[in-house]
Amino acid sequence: IFFSHTMLPSLSPPLAAGAPSYRTAPGAPPRPARPLVQHATPWVVACGCVALLAGVFGPARGQHMLWSAPAWAPAFTAPRAEVPPKVFAKHSSNSRRGTASAASHAGEAYGGTRTTQTFAGVPTPNAAAAAEVPGPAARLAWAVCAAVAAAACIAVGRLTAHLPAVRAAPAPAAAARPTMAMLATTGVAQPANTSQGPVHVSAAFDAGNIVVEGSSEREVNLRIRGDPYTKGTDEATHCQWFYFRASNVKGIPMTYNIVNAGEASYPTAWAGYTTCASYDHETWFRVASTHYSEETGALSWSLASEHDTVWFAYFAPYSYERHQELISRCVASPLAQLTVLGSTLDGRPLDMLTIGTGPLQVWVCARQHPGESMAEWLVEGLLEGLLDGDTSDKEILRKATFHVVPNMNPDGSVRGYLRTNACGANLNREWASTGTYEAPTLQRSPEVYHVLKALDTLGCDLYVDVHGDEEIPANFFADSAGIPGWTPRLEELNHKFSAAMLEASADFQTELGYGQDDPGAANMSICSNQIAQRFDCLAVTLEQPFKDACNNPEPAHGWSPTRAKAFGVSLLEAIHKVLPVLR
Fold first, then answer.
1. How many other β-carbons are positioned within 10 Å of the β-carbon of residue 282?
2. Of 231, 266, 149, nearest in space to 545 by CA
3. 184-238 confidence digits (pLDDT tens)
4. Cα 549 to chain center, whole Å?
5. Given phi > 0 = left and psi -120 to 50 = alpha, else beta, which region is 33?
6. What residue spans carry the region label Disordered (predicted)?
7. What tens digit of pLDDT does each residue of 340-376 get?
């Protein structure tokens, strides 16, 4: 053992710097990563040394050894003088219980016959047999065998000590396999590109609209889901509104393709359009890479998202939850009163807020077309101006009573439609019967039915129908010229209202617009035409852009919720200016 601990280390070369090592337990110091035989080397050498010592000195004490001369060497044994009992007793004093057994085994090992005699009153083996011990030749044989064994053990130890440190080679890593993602709506698998997880696209939320067509590693093909078919008036399936989110896309330069953009209701409107995007649903920016291909009919854009999730939309959405919050904020004011005019086809309340006590009845209604979300953003700004304004705004409430319907089409808004309600009716074509088509009805257009009923009850002196236009990059009025009751007075009111808006807002303009209908050619199923004719009043359609306002551009954000709300305050200023001339 002394040899193994003092000599063996010098036989083994030290481990090279950085050589691998194993730990026996967490926190334990490392030990060299050597083969199993090298771990056993000290014990092999120790056993060899013990064998050598036993071979040399063991025969002199043969009567105490548990091993004996081999059977092939009986001739080497010689009789030994009888050991007096007193001497035997001394040698066996270390184990009183094993005296007889040890003496018996010693006698049998040397080939003597087992007889008994009495020693101190205890039977013992035959003294003659016990006295047999190895002779010089036996001692020499044992010494040679032990020396050979020890030499062999030391040689093995030296050889294994010089073997290089080895460890089991790690199993070769399997080839990387792409993680597959089940993309929302269609279940199309897409390889993931980062460790964050597979890219996921979803429109399963309020106002969401998109269908996943397919994908490749960094590209997703999408399709806009159409509105219900509009019978009787438009005879078309409208589509253009989209709104979805993409998750697990941080830092990935993804490309999004709306492959059926060429089949939209207004395909020419894609020229000059840039997609709206947001990371927090509060701040919306425009994706400058947006482009439309007339050849393929696809609208595409690319973006390496700064966050794990990004939302994309045709315009910044105005959620039904935000609508509820707007109503709750307004009714908390003592100036506002909420009236539920009726229920929609999906059972949602049709809310109308009444503010003011003046004799003039001013109506502002928004979002007949649910995809035109900028309309409700404008109304939010107008309501905040009415309820939180300064002294001049309080004066307007003494001159007029405002009836505000923030969202005339909540069903279509939640369903993610562009122009229709739950059953496919285009509400801005439901204000009068045309030919054999009866409108409005509770079965098809209850929203228009209830608002028109309230109008007939309360009267109207000014009506503003708030919309959004897909093609024209500007804010403008569409007047009611072309109705049977169009008069110079109504034309003068329209001119004064436009002038007031130009003065109130740099975002308004009069160069771009729809133009005027020929006399008597107005479509009387359109809201502003019907109201102007019905009440002989100033009634306009206020259009806002889905793009940017070309006369006052902001490319980073385009026309946005913030600008729409500010435009609502400007509208309130213009209304205040024309109140004295309405009647």
1. 9
2. 266
3. 443 333 333 333 458 899 999 999 999 999 887 799 999 999 999 999 999 999 9
4. 35
5. beta
6. 90-110
7. 999 999 999 999 999 999 999 999 999 999 999 999 9
Q: What is the DSSP letter of 288?
A: T
Amino acid identity of 350? L
Q: 544 - beta bridge partners?
A: 468
Q: Give the active site residue among 219, 543, 554, 573.
A: 543
Distance CA 473, CA 575 (A): 23
Helix (H, G, I), strand (E, B) or coil at 268: helix
541 in Cβ contact with 465 (< 8 Å): yes
122 Cβ partners below 8 Å, 6+ apart? 99, 100
Alpha helices by DSSP H, 305-417: 320-331, 374-388, 391-399, 410-415
Token duo for residue 362: 């001013």
Residue partners of 284: CB distance under 8 A and separation at least 6: 276, 277, 278, 313, 316, 557, 560, 561
543 is catalytic: yes
d(CA 215, CA 438): 46
Q: C-alpha distances in angstroms, 83 versus 86, 96, 111, 127?
A: 8, 18, 17, 8
Return all residues near 138 (Cβ < 8 A) that are at least 6 apart: 59, 69, 73, 76, 77
Q: What is the mean pLDDT of residues 551-561?
A: 98
Residues in the chain: 583
Radius of gyration of the chain (CA): 50
Ordered structural domains, the chain, with CATH: 2-12+30-161 (no CATH), 180-313 (2.60.40.3120), 326-581 (3.40.630.10)
Q: Read off the tokens for 117.
A: 């005699």
Q: Cβ(341)–Cβ(449) under 8 Å?
A: no
- CA 28 to chain centroid, in Å, comes to 40
Instruction: For residue 143, give both structure tokens.
Output: 């010494």
**Residue carrying structure tokens 């771990």:** 39
Point out which residues pair with 212 in neighbouring strands.
222
Query: Nearest Cα to 138, choosing from 217, 68, 219, 241?
Result: 68
Are the beta carbons of 579 and 359 closer than 8 angstroms?
no
Cα within 13 Å of Cα(462), Cβ side: 29
Q: What residues pair up with 545 in beta bridges, in sequence order?
A: 469
Q: Which residues contact 333 (CB under 8 A, 6 or more apart)?
A: 387
Q: Tokens representing 282? A: 């509060």
Cα(18)–Cα(29) distance, integer angstroms: 14
The overall pTM is greater than 0.85: no
Contacts of residue 295, Cβ cutoff 8 Å, sequence gap at least 6 = none
Q: Which own/partner pairs from 167-173 qualify as long-range (CB within 8 Å, at least 24 positions apart)?
A: 167/20, 167/22, 167/33
Do 48 and 153 contact (CB within 8 A), yes or no?
A: yes
Decide the pairing of beta strands 360-366 and 400-405: parallel
Identify the CA nearest to 121 among candidates 99, 94, 90, 91.
Answer: 99
Structure tokens at 576: 């205040």
**What DSSP state is assigned to residue 574?**
H
Sign of CA dihedral 540, 348, 452, 393: negative
The token duo for 479 is 């007047």
DSSP β-bridge partners for residue 202: 245
What DSSP assignment string belongs to 183-198?
-TTT--EEE--STT--
